[in-house]
Every structure is written in structure tokens, then in C-alpha cells.
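Example record

The entry below shows one chain as it appears in the dataset: sequence first, then C-alpha cells.
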Amino acid sequence: MKQKKKIARLHAHIARQRKDYLHKESRKITNFYDLVCIESLNMKEMSQDSRFGKSVHDNGWGMFTDFLSYKLERAGKKLVRIDKWYPSSKICSCCGKLKKELKLVKNLIEHTAAKLDDWGAKLEKKNIEYPVDLICGILFLVIGIVLLLIMPQQVQISEKDVVNGRAFPTMLIWLMLAMSALLVGREAYNMVMHRPAKTKTLNLLVEVKALVIVLILVVTYLLAEVTDLFVVGAVFCAVAFLLFFRCKKPLYYAITVSMAVLIWVVFHFVLNVSF
């Protein structure tokens, strides 16, 4: 109990020190300036940044703005809150002209990152529960039907062949279809009889990340296939994964792209290997 009281006194002492400091600083600003402009900061987002953490809240920004607001109001002065996306960098300080074509890439990246963080936080809280056996059975049924449809184009046969090249794959596909149909039928019967089904819980955020990775790989293949240049797909894949893992260092992007291009140049022009 003594230790708890001692810690409580220390926290109260720190809180009083912070409040005293904020009162003095807000008074200094009020005495020196007639118009004060501050940025509308999202302290919740800043506290989630690994560089700052929860120490952001210890600064008492909200308390400071409250002190500043009422002190300026009492002194007949003005406090202006400016949105963090206000294009001040695009506005001329002399004539006030707005240059719309000037792109603030850094702000755009930060804004996009913040939106993705919000979206990710929402997805992380959502889970989906589904019947494993039923979904697997339906999935393998679809895969089997697709394989049967594309078999004639993928496996060519000739009269000269001693053994039909399609016989064994076709037998395996029909076996897979039969087992899948039995699995789906069993699960459907259990549902009709209101029997508990084997379920699995999926986290939406994890699954979305997996889908994004698959999408990156598919687009990489398509780019390399369409352009007939491996380097195009390689550069896209490298940059896409750096963006996916939220890499913020331009040097890493430069090194990755340079290495991909260098490997392609060595193979294509030095070793005379086209890929």
C-alpha cells in the first residue's frame, strides 16, 4: 500500500508539473501574438506510430490547446485551427495564389498510410466462421470441373501413343470429384439434421493480406508475360512488396530496382540469355 501511495504521489506531481508548464507556455504565446494558428493533429494516430508510442499523450496537447484557446479568447485574440491536409505549401505567402499542380507526395503517402491503418484496424476486429469440410468440398468440386474442361487443351493425344496421356489424370480427377461430392453431401445432410459442423475462424485482415500478396504475384506474372520482359515484372514485384511492408526509405527502393535491372542486363547482354 505504501508503494502504491508513493507512486500515486509521483504521478500527481508529474501531472501538476505538466499543467504548470502548459499554463506558462500558453500565457507566453498569448502575450506575444494576436493571432495563433495550430494544426489539428490526430493524436490517436500519432500514438500508434512506433517512433512515438503512447508518450505522445504525455505531452498534453489537448490540454495545451484548451489553455491557449481560453486565454486568447479572454485577451480578445484569435486562435485558428488548420486542418493537417490544408495545402499551405501550395499557397504563395505574398499573393496567396494556390498552385494546384504542385503535388505533395509526402502528404499523400502519409494520408494513404493513415487510411490503410484505419481500414486494417477495422478488418482486424472482424472474424468469419465457416464450415471447413463443406467449403473444401465445394472448392475441390469446382477445381475438378475446371481441370476436366481444360484437359483437352493441356494434354494432347496422338494415334501413335501407346498409352493415352489423359487416362491417368482423368481417373484422378473423377476420383477427386467423387470424394468431393461425398464430402459435400455429408455436410449438407448434417446441416439438414442440425448437427454441429466442423468450423474454422478466419481473421479478415490476415486473409486480405494474403489476397494482396497473391494479387501482386499474379500481376507480376502478367506484366512479364505481356511485355515479354522479366525485368518489368521483377521491378513491379520488388516495389510492390516494399510498399506492402510499408518501407519508407527511398534508398531501399533504389537499391531493389537497381539490382533487378542489373541482373536483367547481365543475363540479357553479357550472358546472352533472354528471359
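Notes for this example: The chain is about 65% helix and 10% strand. The mean pLDDT is 80.
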